[in-house]
Amino acid sequence: MNDADDETGEQGPREADMAVIEAGSRTLRTQVTPPAPEDDVPARPADPEVDRELRAVEEELLGRWPETKLDPSLDRMNALMDILGEPQRSYPSIHITGTNGKTSTARMVERLLLAFELRTGRYTSPHVQSVTERISLDGRPIAPEKFIEQYRDLTPYIGMVDQSQPHRMSFFEVLTGMAYAAFADAPVDVAVVEVGMGGSWDATNVVDGQVAVVTPIALDHTDRLGETPGEIAGEKSGIIKQGATAILAQQPADAAQVLLKKAVEVDATVAREGMEFGVLHREVAVGGQMLTLRGLGGEYEQVFLPLHGEHQARNAAVALAAVEAFFGIGSMHQRTLDLDTVRGAFATVTSPGRLEVVRRSPTVVLDAAHNPAGAQVTAAAISEVFGFTHLVGVVGPSGDKDVRGLLEAFEPVFAEVVVTRNSTSRAMDVDELAALAVEVFGEDRVQVETRLDDALEAAITLAEEEGEYAGAGVLVTGSVITVGEARLLLGRG
């Protein structure tokens, strides 16, 4: 199986309309915050020939089963790994599952490992703008040339698997195989691997992570994973392997029970947020927050995290515990990691599309929340950090999500909402979305725009009408895809 941080989607290459979006909008590019030096969302390749080759690879990948079509089997992945000589076993792994926060947590884990001078490979999904974001080496997305080379090198072996199995390998399975092969070729000292969807049958689950991380579980993909947190936890617990260390974020009671039962069955060591580790103190700071974290080996004070929201502080605690466990702290060693190194690592963390400010006057924030649980923590963080007196929402969700729950979570913080759609076929029908929004917000608070660029224009205009000093802002949300396309339109691509 495969997935998403938060969202499963046809996130390989975008559909045809992306060419228009990539061109951007001159109007929207005014007053845009320049990209930060650490910004690691790659644009299209500058070399026309490389861009042409990358698009050809993307088209071939799109010809396979998309991430939304699942088959609960690891047969194809095991067959490919066998042909390639088991590359995923040539390095230790930290494997991350959960409903929300997986990508942000993976990026924090990666930064910590890099700070301790380890070569890292990171595999995350979906991507914000470029498919090459999914595979990172040493904290940087794989170069387009390397991505193309990796795909072409694997193509004959993928063909062999296709011919030997009832179904061809999916888009996500091929990318997972490319990542594992790239990490072996590098070679990396450790791989940080984010599950696509679920755990047991996810394509990534051919690794044996010595550390298994479970971020908060909530209701999402209920048609595939289960209708309660406990049922979903049963699928996600599949990444907890024999003798591993399981790092568990705070969970609903039924999910926690299932995860702990699995840990006992496989003789895994367990560390739980709120028990063995957690956030001791946090306060809002300029550009982020200042944290005191309790890790498996002791306390870490005055840790600056340049991300917003209590949920990111908790992700930081989970990431720290995972890296401590990787280094044997809490089992073999009872000590903290070097404090200055930990501080330096967290200070460099980025998470594009997660409460990311991309424009001022008015302030425009992007957040990839796409389910009710994600929307609730985003709404809380917006209220805590930004102090908007008039917030306009731009919402473009996928049609297979709990969209009513998403809208209800944002209703208390949105003064007005502009409903729209992204360019992909998975986007919710705008008329259906508008009808739901009117039920939740009332007709006077809802505006409908069928194109995302028009929706952004409308929302910015509504915010500007409040006046420069009225504390108005715009939040673009509902889908990783919508956020990625808005990011391009607003000049961050």
Give descriptors for this structure:
493 residues, alpha/beta, 6-stranded mixed β-sheet, 16 helices, 38% helix, globular
Q: What does this 3D model show about the protein?
A:
The chain is an alpha/beta fold. Helix content is 38%, strand content 16%. It has 16 helices and 17 strands. It has helices at 18-23, 48-62, 75-84, 102-115, 144-164, 171-185, 222-225, 229-236, 253-265, 310-326, 339-346, 372-385, 403-410, 430-441, 452-464, 480-489; strands spanning 93-97, 120-123, 135-137, 140-141, 190-194, 211-214, 245-248, 269-272, 278-285, 288-294, 299-305, 356-359, 363-366, 390-395, 416-419, 446-448, 472-477. An 8-stranded mixed beta sheet has the order 4-3-2-5-1-6-7-8, sandwiched between helices. Strands 12-13-17-14-15-16 form a 6-stranded mixed beta sheet. Helix 13 links the parallel strand 14 (390-395) and strand 15 (416-419). It is globular and about 60 Å long. The model is unreliable at 1-27 and 29-38 (pLDDT under 50).
